[in-house]
Write a structure and sequence with these properties.
single chain; about 220 residues; mainly alpha; Four Helix Bundle (Hemerythrin (Met), subunit A); 10 helices; about 0% strand
């Protein structure tokens, strides 16, 4: 009875902590808050992205620490063949993530570019780019994250974290696209119609020729 009670407490705690993180992360990433800061404290805007990333790390580290410190027996065990296959899939996903970095302006993503240029703009300055993986899904990093999460043998607490993160990737991608539509307008709307969000579908993707044609309208 005691162990069941502790497990329930841990699961509820982790779920609530993730909910709190997601709420804070979404609010601080929103254009509404950025516009508010830009209007009243424009001198802070060059450091906004750097502060946002640092704050996100500070918030997420304790949640991850609790998730691992409360680890217990997995709810399932893969057979040897499936286990190594999923490890291979995870490794391929990490390699794919590494190669995907070249399609992003990492200095802007981290916030160092805004700081060095003392950029006070609210909108991201990165141009709309369709990388190799963006031909198949609109949010390849979220898709890669989901793959890595679910290739593990999960205990109750980690399963809770996996579910919460997957839900946030789904919701977060929707919130992010509101901003992308404001940044890029009709070209992104066309892109949304032709490429799925998170789940690749063989009948919905862009050929390299179609990418070039679409980007002509930038």
């Amino acid at each position: 009875m005691m162990q069941s009670s502790i497990d329930t407490y841990q699961i509820i705690t982790i779920a609530l902590l993730w909910c709190g993180f997601f709420l804070i992360h979404s609010v601080t990433a929103s254009l509404n808050l950025k516009n508010l800061v830009a209007r009243n404290y424009s001198q802070w805007m060059p450091a906004y992205r750097l502060a946002f990333n640092a704050f996100s790390i500070i918030l997420i580290v304790p949640i991850l620490w609790l998730s691992f410190s409360w680890s217990s027996e997995p709810l399932w065990r893969w057979s040897s063949g499936i286990f190594w296959f999923l490890q291979f899939v995870s490794l391929l996903t990490v390699v794919a993530f590494y190669f995907s970095l070249k399609y992003y302006d990492m200095a802007e993503f981290m916030g160092t570019k805004q700081w060095s240029e003392r950029n006070t703009a609210v909108e991201d300055q990165e141009q709309f780019v369709i990388g190799e993986f963006h031909r198949y899904v609109r949010h390849p990093w979220y898709t890669m994250g989901i793959i890595i999460i679910w290739c593990r043998e999960l205990d109750p607490v980690m399963l809770t974290s996996a579910i919460m993160l997957t839900l946030y990737f789904m919701l977060g991608s929707r919130l992010e696209e509101r901003k992308l539509l404001q940044y890029h307008g009709d070209i992104y709307r066309q892109y949304m119609k032709r490429v799925p969000g998170l789940l690749p579908r063989p009948w919905r993707y862009l050929s390299r020729g179609q990418v070039k044609e679409l980007l002509k309208n930038r």
